[in-house]
Specification:
498 residues; mainly alpha; two-stranded antiparallel sheet; 6 strands; 47% helix
Length: 498
Amino acid sequence: MTTTIMKKNILTSMAIIAIMFTSCDHFDNINNNPNDPTEVSPQLILPNVCQSAFYRGTDGMYADKMVVQTDGHNSEQFYEWNRGSFSTYCNELLQVTKLKEEADRTGQSVYEGLYHFFRAYHFFNLTLKFGDIPYSEALKGEKEAMFTPKYDSQEEVFAGILDELQQSSELLAAAADKEEIISGDIIYGGSSAKWQRLVNSFRLKVLMTLSHKSNVDNHDIKKDFATIVSQPLIESNSDNGQLSYIDQEGNRYPQFNAQWSGFYMDKTFIDRLSERRDPRLFLYALPTNEAASAGKSADDFTAYAGGDPTVPYGENKNLVGAGKISQIHSRYRTNPTGEPTILLGYAELQQILAEAVVRGWINGNAQQYYENGIRASFDWYSTYSGDYAKYVSSSAAEEYIMGDKVKWDDTLSDEKKIELIIFQKYCVSFFQGGWTPFFEHLRTGYPDFAHLADTPVPYRWMYPDTESKYNTENVQSAVKNQFGENNDKITSMPWWLK
């Protein structure tokens, strides 16, 4: 079972971390304050490292076509973003680096496996957003005065990520064999064995993300995948890599008491769940005011409606005034402990395995993996949705699995089977998936995302302005090597999608 986040000692660690790590404009600018602490036990750093990685907010939900903005124009909803941020380097990755340094200083090697996992996790997200990024020379400004790191090719970055994940798995397995406890672990209560299961499962996710490729440097994608499948993996919801919350200042569910001005449901999301008669809709959204006034029940699919994500916000604002658009479910804002936020869980892993079978990467029963993933999702929501658990019972799961648009059919083409699988990963990403559904769409084309004809779905983010100012030669070289001279555009396709 997951360990409940934030006991009193964790609050202390958060205060220490807040002092140790401050924001920076450029990831190579590291300022040392002699009045701030420079040494701290790794078990006091780890909780914040975990929270940063496992936290899930509203990121990606507009681009993923789950919500619309009704009181202003949202650039993500219309795929109009430009530059991204490298803040991960000076925030999350700097914390991970400090975890390793303090573990080395205190001789606590048990943290090294987590160090490599968190590095791999953050670099994975960074390279998906940008393409080529600083990797091999990154984060060496403080120790080696390397303030203008080179950009590694995306293939080199992915190869490094896979290498680090393998190293993490091996180190965690060794720690588990020696029954070493990871102090400060707010995810698995110190269990190296459970961390290894998460790491190996994440390795499969990374490999599936690379489904357009046969080889990545010295990694054979299919062969590596088949090898890892035989290693310890997440076996049930009790192994989920998830962060739980408690009703305590600073430790409550991220959406508790959130002020959602103009934040309403997307029509395409509502319609897809309704046409599949997916009862998880009743946990995500509220009936429209018009439907509620007409006496429609919460389990009536016709009681829900969303806003068109492609029209000017004023049109959706009119729907709000007329009571014809669903709000996000109030349970997210009223429950201080909410539901855990998941980095990677059993339900997603089962769909990854189902896709691997369909692609011929492994032997197995794709239908069984697919249906097990659905059952795991219903079971998880039943555990954490309180009064709404009645909608996602085991019998509801079985009924849903047999639905016309959900039911597995071995006569379907492989492409249609993958579409079924990706939808199941997509529909459980509400306040959980971040940008993952967006990247899955780029990789597979599923689900289709509504957009204006003259505004295609972007492939990436442009590099930050700070890179042009402080690391000019390297960022220009990276752009040229990937996309051509001065072609740093959101519509430029990165290596992983080619």
